[in-house]
Amino acid sequence: MNLKKLILIALSTITVSAFVGCGEQNEEEVDHQGNQRTGETVAIVNGQEIDKEEFEETKDYFAQIYEAQGIDLDEDEEMNEQVTRQVIDELVSEELLIQEAKDLEISPNEELVEEELEEYKNEFEDDDQLEEQLGLSVEQLEQQISDSLMIDKLIDEQVQDDDLNISEDELKQMYDQQIEQQQEMMPEDEEIDEAELPEFEEIKSDLEEMALEEKKQEQVGKLIHELKDESDIEILY
What is the pTM of this model? Predict the structure, then answer.
C-alpha cells in the first residue's frame, strides 16, 4: 500500500471459524480488504481482526528496507522485536484511519481508484503475472488502493494546510540545519565550499513544503492517538 502509501490492551483468545467447504469463504474468513484469513490474528481493532499473514507480509517489506541498510533482523533480536511492534502499530493505525473514514462516510474517488489500478496493471503482461509478482489478486489490489485513497482523503479533510502556520524563523532554522548536515557529511580533512551552498531564498519554497509535511504528520499522529484512546484495541502477538 502507499504507505504502504501502503498507515496501530488487553490480551484475549479468539476462536476462528474453519473453512466451510473446499475453496469456499464466508464473511468471517475474509477481512475488509478481501484477504483470505489464515486463522491467526495479531490484533483486533474495534472488532476488526488484523490477520497474521498481512502482518508478516508488511514485516517482510520492512525487513528488506533494513537489509538494504546492512541490518539483518534475523541476527538482531532487539531490532527484530522493535520492528515487530512498529509493524503492528502501523497496521492498527491504518485500520483506525480506515474505520474513521467509513464512520464519516468518506469514500475515495472511484475514477482515481481505477486510474491507479490501471497504472499497476500496465506494469505487467497480464493479471496472472500481477498476482504472482505482487502476491495479491486484482480485487485485493483494488481494495488496497481504495483504502489508501480513502485515508488520504480523510487526512486532507482533517488537516488543512491553512491551519499549519510556519514562521520565517522556523524556515531559517531548518535551513541552518540543512547546511550543518551538509558540512557534517564532508570528510574531516575537507571543508565545504560555501559558494556551492544554496542561499536561503533559493530553497525557501522547498523548506516550506518540508515543514508543512512535518506538521501535517504531527497532526495525523495526534488524530491516531485520539482514535486509539476512543477505541477497543487488543494486541495478540
Answer: 0.73
